[in-house]
Amino acid sequence: MPVLSARLSGTPIEKEYLRLEASLGRVEASGHPFDASLYPADVVSKVAREWQLRMVFEHRSSMVFAQLAQQLYEANAPLDMKIVMLRMAQDELRHAGTCADVIRALGGSPEPEAALEVVPLARHGERTAEERALRNVLYTTCLSEMVACARFVATIDVTRDPYLRDVQRALLADEVLHGQFGFHYLAWMQPWLDAHPGERASVERYLVHAFAILESELAPVGPFVSLTGAERALGANDPAAAREIFYATMEGAVVPGLERLGLAADASWRQRRRLA
Ligand SMILES: [Fe+2]
Ligand SMILES: [Fe+2]
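Above: query sequence and fe (ii) ion SMILES. Below: predicted holo structure tokens.
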């Protein structure tokens, strides 16, 4: 298995990257060094391993948004939508870099093993370019990134370590944009959806399937073990909380948000099941 690394090139391109990074960051870098001596060593290593998984996941999200930008080209999306989608692909790569910094601070290896093949983004058979892009925008941003945002907010709420709070806030600041993107895109698509009722119904049918897939990916199933105080203080993954947050986010934010923008998402949510 190859290792994923966030190393820089040492060429002048690196300076250009650092300028870009500084211009895109929404939150100041943390002024708090991480002090591992305050926590049990096994808890620090466990949390470092979680950040290794997060690093791999952020890198994979970048691959998804980079491909989604191509689908926005095919759908003739507005310039700002295409550029911000490319920015989001960059954000996720920058996040992989942030994860590497955190892993290093926690004493872990910032070069986790990871499959580097790009998994092709769904093309949804014979759909039009507009519907294909809309389906994937809805899945990745309105659904998936919204749950990610809610999980970050809940984790920051219990994380007491000042360094880890700061890095989570920096990631969350970008994830908020990622979660909002799809709702703005859907608002922009309203005239097209009004003119294409068949495609609107097809997107609503897709949501029946998409909600079920998302549930299987983001709503962990128990039995759950409750976290220790140190795990909580370091923002360790809490599967029981993640399950609760998933349903609260879908039912309290995502479904009503999609309904307000003219999709019958409530019916799709209630009927959610995997379609072939
Ligand atoms: Fe991210
Ligand atoms: Fe994201």
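The chain has one domain: 12-19+37-270.
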